[in-house]
Structure prediction request, 55 residues.
Amino acid sequence: MQTLKELWNDEQGMGTVEVILLIVVLIGLVILFQEEITDIVESLFEKITDRTDAF
Prediction:
């Protein structure tokens, strides 16, 4: 019974699980908002290109 209690309270791998969950959530958000992110990045690159062409 003691080993089961120790196993339940063992938090050694929790940091890894949290990082993996955060990565999964971020990937999901990128997939969900892929078109919006692409539009924003393209707009930023257009502005950068326009401003560098002015020099």
Summary: The two ends are 75 Å apart (CA to CA). The chain has three helices and no strands.
